[in-house]
Design goal:
heterotrimer, A mainly alpha, B alpha/beta, C mainly alpha, A: mainly alpha, ABC transporter involved in vitamin B12 uptake, BtuC, two-stranded antiparallel ribbon, globular, B: alpha/beta, Rossmann fold, 2 domains, five-stranded parallel beta sheet, cell membrane (chain C), LivM-like (chain C)
Chain lengths: ~300, ~375, ~350
């Protein structure tokens, strides 16, 4: 494998990982921009979406309709957690909302274990999903899951861009993100806007859950936690609360992770990957709180 | 507060009242938390064994009773649970756990109380020395299976060069990797390098690309992985075009390997306790798989189901030979275990001076979505625990 | 008067610690030991999280460091050779008694807290929480990789079982005494001011950073001490022992009792400990007359999670809010010094 081929292949790997992070991070950012809620339960929406897809398939649905069901179910789950857990604490200090989401993820993960058992389950895929593209005598490879991950993420983000610029609810979301109270004062139906935000964010998480499960080949109740942590990093280094920021952050994080791991072994950095990534997060908070895109933030006193 | 006391008190009373006429065995597994995907199958295996033994008339004319608590993968909860089992429930022996963190939390308490403790699946060969005379393993140690893996790679697969990949986040995979490295070097094999990952990552593309870029292609990949990850590992390694034999330990012994890996699981070899195949396995294996499927409606999730099942039969055998449900006598009888046929092979402690059973290691080969017996080996060199 | 109460309280605790192991069943001794350790851990968490409003999610990181430092320092030399053969010289030949090891563990954690606190304590709200969560992840990764000190992800074992009820009760009293002295002193008032209104606090001349740093470092000291006690209680642990599950447990205890109250921390720890023990025994299944309730493992965690959410919704300030027993404050606190939760939440609900 030549150096160029090596770099190309790692670039493909980075794009594939990064687009998943971006997809999860966007949902985190939408919700944060509206409510200042650091939503730990967001990762569990991935779990919900993936399990719903699995069970829809087991019930006899084809793969694509099953994915549709999965996305619907995760969106619905988002609406439910908003109504049941987050609305009652809306407007409370950041910490109260953050803690509510911690409690929620604790409940959801344990509920998942209770209902589905914690052993991973096979996530059946149609053959075309695993179809492989191979170049340079197999030295560069990627499959339809990688392509789809990137493609679906880009489509979802384009849709989101259209939604927040061209639809009434979307514009309302942007207004509410600027200033929730003011938006409320000028007659915006804040509840509706927030519910829509949860629908979108959770549906995105559901899609990410299906793609994550497709790459891994398995679903399990605790599957959402690792991607959630990474999405926090992505959202913050991009600029927390900003949709473009989350996208940029996701891809940058994916690239960084792959870079750390693709360095020669004698550098000894790859076991420290997660530590380095979180050190970067802290560095951003301290020195560039607005993230790569420089989003306006009040992170310091 | 008063009510809580009453509830707790009555629980203790209820469990004391049942003590007559049954032999109580502690069923110590993490039913929830991060270890539960291995512990629940083992606990299910244990329950099945107790049901079978009781249906056949019990032991010494008494029924076995499993006393189950949830360790929650939390060491403080495990210590509480251990004291409850020993002091309030008066168990005469404890069976449990598939990881050494949990086994080491419970072990010292059982040791102090003089209650024999047999771990179903904590394969660290250091445990008996770390805990003491009451600690037994129902499974072989990782050093033995890694040595067999290394010999199989070097002799049977003619793998003169190998590349090691291991999961850095668990003890089992860390030990397996270390012992393999030791045994493989002793045989004269050349390790071209090693790479680690973290359980839960589920994306190994960066590591895979690195292996593909090696100037010299390794003959064999030795991957020490947990059951929850192995399907993903095989799927992703094969898809990226790494066609070498993939070799590993009993973590591979889960239906997920073939379910998730599919055709990609061909040319995968692993060391394990027995060939878990409903057609080709030993009579014990066939009987176990059929019984497990009947009881739980699914195939055993991984090798730990069989180990949990065997642990109970191991204890039942010792209790029978002890002649009375007395912990000290059971420990002594366990030490005298000789050639006990179980699903996961034959267990002998007598005369070995070790509380890690000397079991033959089975090497399984995967071909066309089927498991086949590749070899049954006893290693010539075993790395020190 | 207040000293009389203190003496009575100390005498009771002394009696408990001295007599406990002889009259109580071992199970209850163990429950009490873990309860005492959690009082140390949660009240020290409360100092930064409740009193200064720096809501740290990194506490288990300090607990881990405390446990490992004290474990390394007290390990028998022969065991050190066997388990940690690559330990650097200055540690390989050291075997300290329990108390100095515990103190060093605490001081080590406090130093780490100062180093990371100087930058981090400037952050506010969610950001400091996410950054301290980052600290927890970093500690975990470092512990897994620092194999020569920690055996990596392999279980760290062979630690002498020093922790008993006496040590735990003693340290719990010391922790509560020190924390109450600090929290209800002028420094403590400064801490609360930086929580309630940082800008006004600065306007009246309070330096935010030192006040917060002090709380964070002191909290880390006792987290280290508590970690050492926990380590010598378990006698074996691994980096996974001190991770997210521990964090969730500490947070549940803290918010139930009341973040801005030391009495609340004690109440929260006691309530959750008892409740978990009761639920843990109920979820095994039981029979009520002819009704057989089967085992539902995991139900206790779900129940605790719901309690957590209910507290957040209906009583975010916790059971006690900012109230304290007079014993704790020593009459040094004025009424109305509590947090601003009540107003914000009442007004913010839509």
């Amino acid at each position: 494998m030549s150096d160029l081929e090596y770099v190309l292949q790692q670039l493909i790997n980075a794009l594939s990982i990064g687009s998943l992070y971006a997809l999860v991070a966007v949902g985190l950012s939408i919700i944060f921009s509206l409510l200042r809620l650091t939503n730990f339960a967001h990762g569990d929406m991935m779990m919900v979406g993936a399990f719903a897809t699995l069970f829809a398939q087991l019930a006899g649905l084809g793969f694509l309709p099953a994915v549709g069901v999965g996305i619907l179910v995760s969106a619905l789950a988002g609406v439910i957690i908003e109504r049941v857990a987050y609305r009652p604490v809306r407007g409370a200090p950041d910490v109260t909302m953050l803690l509510t989401s911690v409690a929620l993820t604790y409940i959801l993960e344990n509920l998942g274990i209770l209902l589905f058992s914690s052993s991973p389950r096979n996530f059946p895929l149609p053959d075309w999903m695993n179809h492989l593209y191979s170049f340079a005598d197999g030295r560069i490879t990627f499959n339809n899951i990688n392509l789809l991950t990137l493609g679906v993420t880009l489509l979802a983000l384009l849709f989101l861009n259209w939604f927040v610029r061209r639809t009434q609810v979307g514009l309302g979301m942007r207004a509410a993100a600027e200033d929730l109270t003011a938006a409320h004062l000028v007659g915006l139906d804040v509840n509706r806007v927030i519910v829509v935000a949860f629908v979108l964010a959770s549906a995105f998480a559901g899609v990410a859950g299906v793609l994550w499960a497709a790459q891994a080949g398995v679903v399990e109740p605790q599957m959402g936690f690792t991607p959630l942590l990474k999405a926090f990093v992505a959202a913050i280094i991009g600029g927390f609360g900003s949709i473009p920021g989350a996208i940029v952050g996701g891809f940058v994080l994916g690239a960084l992770e792959v870079l750390i791991q693709s360095l020669p072994g004698d550098w000894g950095l790859s076991p420290y990957r997660d530590a380095l990534v979180f050190a970067l997060l802290i560095a951003f908070l301290l020195f560039r709180p607005g993230g790569i895109l420089g989003v306006r933030q009040e992170v310091k006193l | 507060m008063k009510k809580l006391g009453v509830v707790l008190g009555s629980l203790v009373l209820v469990s004391l009242g049942l003590a007559q006429g049954t032999i109580k065995i502690g069923n110590a597994y993490n039913q929830t938390g991060s270890m539960s995907s291995l512990d629940v199958p083992a606990s299910n295996g244990a329950k099945l064994a107790v049901k079978e033994i009781n249906a056949a008339g019990g032991v010494l004319g008494m029924k076995l009773e499993l006393v189950s608590y949830d360790g929650k993968t939390d060491p403080a909860t495990i210590t509480n649970m251990a004291t409850q089992m020993i002091n309030s429930d008066k168990v005469v022996a404890i069976a449990g756990f598939t990881d050494s963190d949990s086994a080491l939390a419970l072990g010292p308490i059982a040791q102090k109380a003089g209650i024999p403790f047999v771990t179903a699946g904590a394969t660290s060969p250091q445990l008996p020395e770390q805990i003491g005379s009451e600690m037994f393993l129902a499974c072989f140690g990782d050093n033995v299976q890694a040595a067999v893996g290394a010999e199989f790679v070097y002799k049977n697969l003619k793998g003169k060069t190998a590349y090691l990949v291991w999961d850095k986040s668990t003890e089992y995979t860390t030990l397996l990797g270390k012992y393999f490295k030791d045994a493989y070097a002793k045989l004269g094999g050349k390790l071209l390098g090693e790479e680690t990952y973290k359980s839960g990552d589920k994306n190994f593309s960066a590591q895979i690309t690195k292996i593909k870029a090696l100037p010299q292609k390794p003959d064999v990949l030795y991957i020490a992985a947990m059951p929850d990850d192995i399907g993903t590992v095989v799927k992703q390694f094969r898809q990226a075009g790494l066609t070498q034999p993939i070799v590993g330990g009993d973590g591979y012994d889960t239906p997920l390997l073939v379910e998730v890996g599919g055709k990609a699981a061909d040319n995968v070899y692993f060391t394990t306790h027995a060939l878990m195949d409903a057609q080709k396995g030993t009579p014990e294996v066939k009987k176990f798989i059929a019984a497990y499927k009947k009881e739980y409606g699914k195939d055993p999730e991984n090798a730990f189901a069989a180990l949990g099942y065997d642990t109970i039969y191991l204890l039942a055998d010792a209790i029978k030979r002890a002649g009375a449900p007395d912990p000290a006598k059971i420990t002594a009888a366990l030490m005298q275990t000789k050639g006990l046929k179980t699903v996961t092979g034959s267990i002998t402690f007598a005369g070995t001076g070790s509380r890690v059973p000397q079991k033959a290691v089975t090497v399984v080969a995967v071909k066309d979505l089927k498991l086949n017996l590749a070899a049954t080996l006893a290693p010539s060199y075993i790395p020190k625990p | 008067m207040k000293y009389a109460r203190l003496v009575v309280a100390l005498a009771l605790i002394g009696l408990l610690a001295g007599l406990g192991p002889h009259v109580l069943p071992e199970y209850w001794v163990r429950v009490l030991i873990v309860l005492g350790i959690n009082i140390i851990l949660v009240s020290s968490l409360g100092l930064s999280n409740g009193f200064t409003g720096v809501f740290s999610l990194g506490h288990p990181g300090f607990v881990a460091l405390g446990a490992y430092v004290s474990g390394i320092l007290t390990l028998e030399l022969t065991k050190k050779g066997a388990y940690l053969p690559d330990l650097p010289g200055f540690l390989a030949g050291v075997q300290l008694p329990f108390l100095p090891a515990t103190l060093i563990a605490g001081v080590f954690c406090a130093l780490v807290a100062v180093v990371i606190g100087i930058p981090l304590m400037r952050l506010s709200g969610n950001y400091v929480s996410v950054a301290t969560l980052g600290f927890l992840v970093i500690v975990n990764v470092v512990l897994v990789n620092a194999e020569q000190f920690t055996r990596g992800s392999r279980t760290f074992t062979g630690i002498p079982p020093y922790t008993d009820l006496g040590w735990v009760a003693g340290w719990a009293v010391v922790t509560l005494l020190v924390l109450s002295r600090v929290a209800y002193s002028p420094l403590g008032r400064a801490m609360r001011a930086t929580r309630d209104d940082p800008i006004a606090a600065q306007a009246v001349g309070i330096h935010i950073l030192p006040a917060r740093l002090m709380a964070f470092a002191l909290g880390a000291f006792f987290a280290g001490v508590g970690g050492a006690l926990y380590g010598h209680y378990l006698v074996s642990f691994s980096p996974a022992t001190f991770y997210v599950a521990m964090l969730v447990q500490q947070l549940t205890m803290l918010v139930l009792g009341g973040q801005a109250s030391l009495t609340g921390a004690v109440v929260g720890v006691s309530a959750i400990t008892l409740l978990s023990e009761v639920l843990r025994n109920l979820e095994r299944g039981f029979s009520l007359g002819s009704l057989q309730v089967p085992a539902v493992f995991g139900a206790s965690q779900i129940a605790l999670g719901f309690i957590f959410i209910l507290v957040m919704v209906y009583r975010p300030q916790g059971l006690l809010g900012d109230r304290e027993l007079p014993l704790v404050t020593g009459g040094r606190v004025a009424k109305g010094a509590g947090p601003v939760y009540k107003d914000t939440v009442g007004g913010g609900r839509t």
